[in-house]
């Protein structure tokens, strides 16, 4: 069966994939944002920024904190307190060497 080309179905599939990505990232709180940045060039904060930018492009006011809560599944500061560790010197050096421009 080919992938449907109507926009509504495509949007539903993309939304389902995005929700699955958030679910996966939520289950992998052991993976630090700096690791994601160093390996893939984006992290949970990037996703939240992209979410906020998409909302703003549609005339919806979504704050940075609100978009982060969508991605993290809780307030960002709570997630940081529970899961974020200080970057190792190696992680920080890799980030500086490969820092994305976005």
Q: Can I get a quick summary?
A:
With 102 residues, the chain is mostly helical. It has 6 helices and no strands.
Roughly what percent helix? Answer: 55-70%
The mean pLDDT is 93
Give the N-terminus to C-terminus distance in angstroms. 37 Å
> Architecture in CATH?
Orthogonal Bundle
Number of domains: 1
The rough form would be described as globular
Order of helices and strands: HHHHHH
Percent of sequence in beta strands: under 5%
Q: List the uncertain runs.
A: none
Q: How many β-strand stretches?
A: 0
The helix count comes to: 6
CATH hierarchy, class: Mainly Alpha
Class by alpha and beta content: mainly alpha
Radius of gyration: 16 Å
Largest sheet features: none
- The CATH homologous superfamily is called SMc04008-like
CATH fold naming? SMc04008-like fold
Q: What are the main properties of this structure?
A:
102 residues, mainly alpha, SMc04008-like fold, 6 helices
SSE inventory with pairings:
Elements: H1 7-27, H2 33-40, H3 44-57, H4 64-72, H5 76-83, H6 89-98
Helix pairs in contact: 2-6, 3-4
Describe this entry's structure for a reader:
The protein has six helices and no strands. The model has no long low-confidence stretch (mean pLDDT 93). The protein has a single domain, classed as SMc04008-like (SMc04008-like fold, Orthogonal Bundle). By secondary structure, the protein is mostly helical. The protein has helices at 7-27, 33-40, 44-57, 64-72, 76-83, 89-98. The relative contact order is 0.13.
């Amino acid at each position: 069966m080919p992938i449907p080309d109507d926009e509504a179905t495509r949007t539903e599939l993309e939304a389902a994939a995005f929700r699955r990505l958030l679910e996966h990232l939520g289950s992998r709180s052991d993976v630090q944002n700096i690791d994601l940045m160093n390996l893939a060039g984006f992290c949970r904060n990037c996703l939240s920024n992209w979410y906020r930018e998409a909302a703003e492009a549609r005339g919806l006011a979504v704050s940075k904190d609100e978009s982060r809560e969508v991605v993290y599944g809780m307030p960002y500061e709570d997630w940081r307190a529970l899961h974020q560790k200080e970057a190792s010197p190696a992680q920080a050096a890799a980030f500086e060497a490969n820092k994305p421009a976005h």
